[in-house]
Amino acid sequence: KHHSKNQIHDLPGIRNSGRLSVLTDSSSIGFSIKGDSVSGFQYEIVKAFADSLGLELVISEKNDLKDCMDGLNSGDYDIIANFIPVTTEWKKNALFTTPFFTSREVLVQRVTVGTSHSKLIKKHSELANDTIYIPVNSPFKMRLIHLSNEIAEPIHILEIKNKSSEQMVRMVAKGMIKLTICDEEFANRLKLKYPNIDVSLPISFSQQQAWVVHPSSTKLLEKLNEFLDDFIGSSAYWNIYRKYY
Predict the structure, then answer these.
(1) Phi, psi (deg, nearest 5) at residue 129
(2) Which residue, 11, 50, 94, 193, could crosslink 55 as a Cys pair with Cβ 3.0–4.6 Å?
(3) Cα 183 to the chain's mean position, in Å?
(4) CA pair distance 183, 104, nearest whole angstrom
């Protein structure tokens, strides 16, 4: 039986149902399916958590953070296993877990053969009147709005539906779009796959990255944090980390 609408499940209810409903994004660090095998950095960690409680893991994917938050608030999902920057903007609607790591956002631009280094954007002010493409309702949107105010020039933000950060980076590498934003750790990893991208310009300060649960799922949060405190930094964690990063 699926969780009924408008009923938020805390740990006792989740244990009774025997299943943990989790939302993540479709990427190699979120969740990806190839043939019969399921993989993903966050998937493997949340699977270990579900296993530790003897629960069946039900995974759904969405790339739109607002949709994710709506689903969390309506009780469709128990955890958003997606690295979300710990900001006051999201703290109003959700409880953050123990942070996984601290990372900042970087600009992703394409380096073409023969591009002189001087053609690359190296300063925030050079983004004036430029267009940056991001997934719809990306957590990076607010940062770009602030950045636009800081340089006192418009930065045009174009939101693309049904795309993950990783897919947007691929679009930059292929020359389909000019600029996007990505988490620095992930961007460095994607650079191995797409050597023709430049990810050297930070767009934000370092922010803690964490998962979220519903504000009333306090027992779930407590259990999840206990698990993460033990798990993050363990050899099992580093084995998973090295596989994806």
Answers:
(1) 65, 10
(2) 50
(3) 8
(4) 6
Structure tokens given for 12: 């006792």
Nearest to 209 by CA among 84, 25, 41, 87: 84
Q: What are phi and psi of 181, to 5 degrees?
A: -125, 145
What one-character-per-residue DSSP string does 91-106 give?
HTT-EE-S--EEE-EE
E-only strand ranges, the chain:
19-24, 32-34, 37-39, 56-61, 79-85, 95-96, 101-103, 105-110, 131-135, 156-160, 179-183, 197-202, 207-213
pLDDT digits (tens, 9 = 90+) for 99-124: 988 889 999 999 977 766 668 899 99
236 token code pair: 């099992």
* Cα(20)–Cα(47) distance, integer angstroms: 10
Whether residue 169 contacts residue 190, with contact meaning beta carbons closer than 8 Å, is answered with yes
Strand segments, DSSP code E, in 86-175 are 95-96, 101-103, 105-110, 131-135, 156-160
pLDDT digits (tens, 9 = 90+) for 48-106: 999 999 999 998 888 888 888 999 999 999 999 988 888 877 788 899 999 988 889 99
Name the β-bridge partners of 57.
Answer: 20
Give the separation between CA 21 and CA 72, rounded to whole angstroms: 10
Vertex 23 angle, CA 225 and 77, to 5°: 80
Backbone Cα Rg of the chain: 19
